[in-house]
Design brief:
The protein is mainly β and 78 residues long. 5% of the residues lie in helices and 35% in strands. Strands 1, 2, 3, 4 and 5 form a 5-stranded antiparallel beta sheet that branches. The longest helix is centred in the C-terminal third of the chain and has 4 residues.
């Protein structure tokens, strides 16, 4: 469950079922995690579905105890 920050990560992807959007949020443990939502094509303010669990979360030592504690980055190296 998100308790703090909530934001979008990527531009939404138009699908036949709606707009697919990846988002990030912070939980009570202060970890950043990624989830996904499916938004209505005609009215994107309507959430049709949301992933029941996270798609990605900090799991490796360097994600939990690294420079950015409790954060995983979905992008590759820059």
């Amino acid at each position: 469950m998100e308790t703090a920050k909530l934001g979008v990560n990527t531009p939404p992807i138009k699908t036949q079922h709606g707009w697919l959007s990846i988002y990030h949020a912070v939980g009570p443990d202060k970890y950043y995690r990624l989830g996904a939502v499916l938004l209505n094509l005609q009215d994107p303010s309507l959430v049709l579905h949301r992933t029941p669990d996270w798609l990605m979360q900090p799991e490796k030592d360097y994600e939990i105890e690294g420079f950015y504690r409790g954060v995983c980055f979905p992008a590759g190296p820059s």
